[in-house]
Design brief:
With 711 residues, this protein is an alpha/beta fold. Among the domains are: 164 residues, Alpha-Beta Horseshoe (Leucine-rich repeat, LRR (right-handed beta-alpha superhelix)); 76 residues, no CATH class. It has 28 helices and 22 strands. It has a 20-stranded parallel sheet, sandwiched between helices.
Length: 711
């Protein structure tokens, strides 16, 4: 597309040689094409090629909204020039996650006098800079910022507070106990809070959840419609969110229609939160709900809450039974066509009539799932992971068969044991991998076996008749798929040392392997794929199917596939990667993974790759191969490797990568560190939140948040 000026001007020669002249397209078509080009390239490069493009590149449809959040090549000078050229034309500016830009870059945002929406999450900004900037943005209605240690609300000017008083949407990420700018936002309708406060300082001191002396404790919630809080692990985060909730418990906003709190682990209910929930039950009708499991378990809360046209429910990790789900949420089969997103991750009894005497591994009640599917027929995002959902032998009632009715699904998360054919599981003799203990021994001798390596042979192994194959065939427009073992846990959890042992896979999952992976290749529009703890992967040949057929794949996460003592799918993975031209994010978690020359040579075919994360107990790497890969793949800006190498080797390689490539890649973030080192948590805390949350830490992301929670 980037033609030299003389090529564009000389229409005749271009037309004669190629039969088409780009400049003869209509303005509407050209604007559509230009909409896929980063704004910095449009303004700073493309518009200089010819007069026509100079005019089109400044069209309001292209300058109204400027997205820099994943423009990893943008630097301070480019931002400065961009704001000079089109600052007055920008109404929405997204700089979320631009961690590499110095805080002085924010000063140039003051040129955008007409800004209505501004996202600075993940950017370095001080109280004084924030005050200066907001003082000039009199039309601002939507704001996203971080609140870091040292934030002082008393430094905000009266002009800044006047701007904040008009802000109706606020997203605030807290790294220190504080109200941030919330008390200044007197017109709030949407409040999103992300609590990332650590329990200990870098010096090892315990932190308190008490707010700074002098901070206002009266947030203005009277106009609030959406309240969302997501807590990272830690006691301090729980203490601080209770202070935000205290005002809500005194007076519940009449217009509140979405109330969501995502809290890991145990977050006990208190008298104040109970009063808040009672008030909500009396006074509001909700469209979206998520609560900590302790607030729902054993209570009759759901029976009393009223819903209007709900679009999002999350009962993640709750002990809610299927009977209660149908009776209290779906009202015995009430039409819930409005529901588009449902998260039942870790809700182990949600497909059983009751949970009192039931074991987690017992068969599900297909009638409950059928009621769910019939009532919520417009679901687009469904998460059933982290549970044992075993189907019975009843014909036509398998979980996969029932889910195939949800034709609108865009993202789906399932446990591995839920996709196996019941009949095949009973009749199929144990495979070699079933007989081998799931140990971490380096050498596993199991005799010589021959497995089909030819793709055509693999495809002919009766997989077309499986229920999972049929499910994949019916969900043609699925964009995100997660198949995760019900007992899988990542070796690198948040804020804790690396896990050294993992639980064995579910017995029902033992037959899930290459043929099921091959079935995924039917998803032509697949963009994100996660596979974790599939024990019967023998060669990984199904991955090659996916590489060939799923040409839109952008994110791939593989963890603990096949035998744990050997990476049995390495050859197939390398074949697959040669076809993944659109792949941007790759995460691999596998013991004894060898990141050597052959692997990185195959990975170099992924010309769009931007982020790489490898987590491997006892894993090895070749430094020269890594350096060669970084030199060949110019788009890579994140390289995280947590392996079994020594600290000396890791530090040396990390320093070499930074020295060689940082100048040309301003966003470069490199972390190479021994996985089992005692200082791992200290290293993790310095990783930019964008990378940590999106790729480095393993988690299920389907229906994690309501759709379109923030722009």
């Amino acid at each position: 597309f980037f033609l030299a000026p003389q090529e564009i001007v000389s229409g005749e020669s271009e037309e004669e040689s190629n039969g088409v002249n780009l400049m003869e397209f209509s303005d509407e078509i050209l604007l559509h094409i230009l909409s896929y080009v980063p704004c910095t390239d449009l303004v700073l490069n493309v518009r200089r090629t010819c007069r026509k493009l100079a005019t089109l590149c400044l069209d309001k449809s292209l300058t109204h909204t400027v997205l820099l959040q994943k423009d990893y090549k943008v630097n301070k000078d480019k931002v400065k020039q961009l704001m000079r050229d089109i600052g007055k034309e920008i109404y929405q500016l997204n700089m979320a996650g631009c961690y590499w830009l110095p805080s002085s870059t924010i000063d140039h945002v003051t040129r955008c006098k007409n800004l209505v929406k501004l996202n600075l999450s993940g950017c370095h900004i001080t109280s004084l800079r924030l005050s200066k900037m907001l003082s000039t943005l009199q039309h601002l209605h939507s704001l996203a910022i971080d609140v870091n240690p040292g934030f002082d609300a008393s430094q905000l000017s009266s002009e800044c507070k006047a701007t904040l008083s008009r802000v109706s949407e606020l997203k605030q990420t807290l790294y220190t106990p504080s109200y941030g700018v919330v008390p200044c936002c007197t017109s709030l309708e949407k409040l999103l809070l992300y609590f990332e406060i650590l329990d200990r300082s870098r010096e090892g001191f315990m932190l308190s959840g008490q707010l700074m002396v002098g901070e206002s404790n009266v947030p203005h919630y009277q106009n609030l419609r959406v309240f969302y809080a997501r807590l990272a692990p830690g006691y301090v985060n729980q203490e601080v969110v209770r202070l935000y909730l205290a005002v809500l418990s005194d007076r519940t906003p009449e217009n509140l229609h979405a109330f969501l709190i995502s809290a890991p682990g145990s977050f006990a209910e208190t008298g104040a939160t109970k009063n808040l929930l009672d008030s909500m039950a009396r006074n509001v009708r909700l469209d979206a709900l998520q609560l900590p499991k302790a607030w729902i378990n054993g209570s009759g809360l759901l029976q009393h809450l009223k819903f209007n046209n709900p679009f999002y429910f999350s009962f993640s990790r709750c002990t809610l039974s299927g009977g209660h789900l149908i009776q209290r949420v779906i009202n015995g089969g009430k039409d819930l066509k409005s529901l588009t997103s449902l998260n039942l991750s870790g809700c182990v009894h949600c497909l059983a009539p009751e949970s009192l005497f039931r074991k987690a591994e017992d068969d599900i009640d297909s009638s409950i799932l059928e009621s769910l599917v019939v009532s919520c027929c417009n679901l687009r995002h469904l998460n059933l992971s982290a549970a044992h959902h075993h189907s019975s032998e009843s014909i036509g009632n398998h979980l996969c068969q029932l889910l195939s009715r949800l034709k609108h699904l865009l993202s789906l998360a399932l446990p591995v044991c839920s996709i196996t054919d019941v009949a095949a599981n009973v009749e199929k003799p144990p495979t070699v991998s079933n007989l081998v203990p799931q140990t971490f021994g380096r050498k596993v001798r199991i005799g010589i076996q021959t497995y089909p390596r030819n793709l055509a042979d693999q495809a002919n192994q009766k997989i077309e008749s499986s229920v999972f194959w049929a499910l994949m065939g019916s969900l043609r427009y699925l964009e995100t798929l997660e198949i995760i073992g019900s007992s899988f846990s990542s070796a690198m959890p948040r804020n804790e040392p690396a896990i050294r042992n993992s639980l064995p896979p579910c017995v029902r999952a033992q037959s899930v392997g290459d043929s099921e992976v091959a079935a995924i290749s039917q998803l032509t529009y697949l963009q994100s794929l996660t596979l974790a703890q599939l024990p019967n992967i023998l060669t990984g040949s199904g991955l090659i199917h996916i590489g060939l057929q799923c040409q839109h794949l952008r994110t791939l996460s593989l963890a603990n596939l096949g035998m744990m003592g050997k990476v049995v799918y390495m050859s197939a993975l390398m074949d697959m990667l040669k076809h993944c031209k659109c792949l941007r994010d790759l995460r691999l978690e596998q013991p004894y993974f060898c990141a050597g020359a052959q692997f990185f040579q195959a990975l170099s075919h992924c010309s769009s790759l931007q982020r790489l994360c490898i987590v491997s107990r006892s894993g090895t790497l070749q430094s020269d191969a890594v350096m060669s890969f970084m030199a060949n793949c110019l788009e890579v800006i994140m390289c995280h490797m947590f392996m079994g190498e020594s600290l000396t080797v890791c530090k040396s390689l990390q320093q070499s990568i930074v020295r060689s490539f940082q100048a040309d890649r301003p966003a470069l973030n490199v972390v190479i560190f021994p996985l089992l080192h005692e200082d791992l948590t200290e290293v993790i805390r310095d990783v930019p939140m964008r990378h940590l949350d999106e790729i480095t830490l393993f988690k299920s992301r389907v229906a994690e948040e309501p759709p379109n929670l923030w722009w």
